[in-house]
Amino acid sequence: MLFDISGKNALITGASRGLGLGIAEGFAKAGANLILVARNIAPETVSELEQYGTKVKAYSLDLSHPEQIPAFIEDILAEWSRIDILVNDAGTQRRHDSVEFPDEDWDWVTTINAKSVFVLCREVGKHMVANGKGKIINFASLLSYQGGFRVPAYAASKGAVMQFTKSLSNEWASKGVNVNCIAPGYFDTEMNTALIADPVRNEQITVRIPIGRWGKPSDLVGTAIFLASEASDYVSGITIPVDGGWLGR
């Protein structure tokens, strides 16, 4: 029963595709109710997840406008009464040579990947601290540890997420709110389409992964359920890499 999340209300950003949708499906199978957040979520996505027998509802939110988040969370709480689990998966990417990296792309990436994640933590965290319990799972990255190539804004934003997760944990762990990160490695999702299509980079990455393949969204579900459940009650402020062994090589 330590890993039981049935009946919990889980708010998941980036839930329309990729890793966020994979976690949503895993949580639905585990019996959690789903508050799906993205700019656009197809009605058939909701219908497919409802087949697991839990409550599922989709909401539109543009995380490039973090000033909209406080009112959005107020509305969610008015409708759902509580948020037990927050999964901040939504993210974006822009690639340029760093000598040509545009200011507007820096602002776009860091706003969505870092500022909006912090504001979501803050607004949901208020509610969880008041209730004396809650689980927050932020998405860091291998680039929270490494610099990457042609992605300075992404690396900076994911480094920020890992660091402010520690800061929030320091304040909230004693109040019953666990704040942790998952750091995915290289996953076969739309965000990595350019890398997957590049035969040289694809090969360089694949041979560097000890397990020998790119990750699938389902590979994250077990770690997410652990961090969302009572099994992780004494775990806070840490980042768990799910990377096929990349960082251990």
Would you give an account of this structure?
With about 250 residues, this protein is of the alpha/beta class. The chain has a single domain, classed as Rossmann fold. Helices cover about 40% and strands about 15% of the residues. The protein contains 8 helices and 7 strands. The protein has a 7-stranded parallel sheet with strand order 3-2-1-4-5-6-7, with helices on both faces. Strand 2, helix 2 (about 45-50) and strand 3 (about 55-60) form a beta-alpha-beta unit. Helix 1 (about 20-30) packs across helix 8 (about 220-230) and helix 4 runs parallel beside helix 5 (about 150-170). It is globular and about 50 Å long. The two termini are about 35 Å apart.
Looking at CATH, the homologous superfamily is NAD(P)-binding Rossmann-like Domain
Could you say what the CATH topology is called? Rossmann fold
Helix content: 40-55%
Q: Main beta sheet: strand number and arrangement? A: 7 strands, parallel
The string of secondary-structure elements, in order, is: EHEHEHEHEHEHHHE
Mean pLDDT: 97
Q: Spatial order of the strands in the main sheet?
A: 3-2-1-4-5-6-7
Radius of gyration: 17 Å
* CATH architecture tag: 3-Layer(aba) Sandwich
- Proportion of β residues? 15-25%
Low-confidence stretches: none
Counting helices, strands and paired strands, the structural category is alpha/beta
The general outline is: globular
What is the first-to-last residue Cα distance?
A: 34 Å
Total strands: the figure is 7
Number of helices: 8
| Tally of structural domains | 1
- Please write the CATH class name: Alpha Beta
